[in-house]
Amino acid sequence: MANYTLIGGDQKQYGPVTDEQLRQWIFDGRLNPQSQVKAESDAEWRPLSAFPEFAAALAARSAARGAPPPVPSAAPPLPAKTSGLAITSLVLGILGLPTCGLTTPFGLILGVVALAKAKGGRGVALAGVIVSAVFLLMIPIFAALLLPAFAAARQKAQAINCVNSQHMLVLAIKMYSGDNTNHFPPAATWCDAIKTDVGSETAFKCVAANSSSRCDYAFNAKLDGMAEAKVAPDTVMLFESDGGWNANGGRELMIGQSRHARLFVVALADGSVQQLRESQLNTLRWDP
User: Fold this and answer.
1) Architecture field, domain 3-64
2) In this predicted model, what pLDDT tens digit does every residue of 236-248 receive, in sequence order?
3) Claim: this prediction has a pTM higher than 0.90
């Protein structure tokens, strides 16, 4: 049986007394839940309500006096959960920067849905809507910045394709020359003369040309049937032209406007293929 010491209403200490005596005093109204009590094993004073062994006696005293039993304090409300749609909306909105705005329409839609449905996480949903909307409005700016770069890259790729085509034609002309005592083909029928050595007529076409003709290049007419040894290596042999199949001639047949971002593709008698600017065309050699 435990013994207790208590402080009375006169602020004097009493005890030790037994737990049974304390219960009797609680029932007699001499003690209340705030009365200071210390058990033999305690080092500090505590209110009587802090002792579980007297909870029943205190409740019985309250019931006897007609007072309702103490109501336990309500648990703090749980924080509202953030909607998964709201989080996804914000993530898609942020991803709009590295994806050039591709994910922002989806982020905007999910953000609006999250705002309409979610009880919690409205701040995240609103942030997703705002970020997505901002990047969505920036799509035209991204397009304005990127389209010129895409166009330049496309033109560069087409120029490389044109260079490769002329390389194939030059190789076929060299093969023809090797089979014909080292003489260039007749200018009037040069396409027909090398067609079998080219293999595919796609080599006669430039991907950047808009013509529907079979050939987008012309042969320097001054090399007509000439021996390779008598031709200066830097003489023009092939050049871009809209003349069509078996087109041959000189500078007058060259295209007037570049197909490849201000570059003109020209093949020389030594077999090299060059990309030249318009200002360099006047330096070309047309006479063997």
Assistant:
1) 2-Layer Sandwich (3.30)
2) 999 999 999 999 9
3) no
